[in-house]
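The instructor's notes for this session suggest beginning with a concrete chain rather than abstract definitions. Hand out the sequence below and ask the class to guess, before any prediction is shown, which regions might be ordered.
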Amino acid sequence: MPTVVITPEVMRDPEAPYARLLREAGFEVRYPKKVLYGPGAVGSDEMIEELRGADAVIASAEHYTPRVLDALPELRVVARAGVGYDAVDVPACTARNVVVTITPTSNHAAVAELALALLFAVAKSMVAGDASLRAGRWPRESTMPIRGKTLGILGLGRIGRSMATRSQALGMKVIATEQFPDRKFVAEHGIELVDFPTLLAQSDIVSLHCPLTDETRNIMNADAFARMKPGSVFINTARGKLVVEADLIAALRSGHLRGAGLDVFEEEPPSRDNPLFALDNVVASPHIAGCDEMSLVGMGVEAAQCIVTLSRGEWPEGAVVNAELKPTWKW
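After discussion, reveal the predicted structure:
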């Protein structure tokens, strides 16, 4: 019987719809005994032992390196529960005939909701106000309005588009930088496409929704933060390595930026003494943007369906990262 290992800790429910879907398709479903990603995560040797014998995995953000892949010759599919796949060495997978899939339709709304939650928390000083009130103080300082502000979105894919429509409903003007824009969506929603320097200069809020690539790595650096409006807000729910964290800290400390809302960090998990956590104008969450109750089920089902579809000799169009394998790939 072929085996699927489901690695995300928050998806280890044997009665979840995605687990049932796999079992009904003839797969054995297994779960690691140890943590493969995040605090307390095991090293690659123990990760290999946890995955040994698997034909497919529904993967979290654990790293699939050439060494790991070489030790798992039975592995046919790495199905990421999410849209980011920077922890997967895709060329190494392709060279070993391992299909890599993502779940492009499941978590975009959840990420947009959390990005907006971070924006509200920063703009309305929610965390600082809560702490002051609990300490017996009664702060009455004015807060930043959301309505009428310009939101600059870097990356207008599914998540960026979800962020755009929700932000417009709140009365914000939306501008965006996107290399391959959906022209119909842009026209229907009256979004102005601009280059990156213009986005930085015109936005009251800059929100990142682009993938981590060689071109986007460290795109938010000292120069980029200096180009942002004084008193503007920075939101990142995409990837931590899009940002030079030391440069962000400097911009926040100087007061050039009003604040930042962060769900992702340069190193994850971040150390408890990360200087960001000493700043009152930072609101942080532990890389949970795509993981609300609804999106977790959706990602699990979508990832499981990719595995089932591939096992039947069919191709899950739009979900495969290394689609060049299609002409010759077999289960």
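Then share the key points. The first helix runs from residue 17 to 24. The chain has two domains: 3-106+291-325, 108-284.
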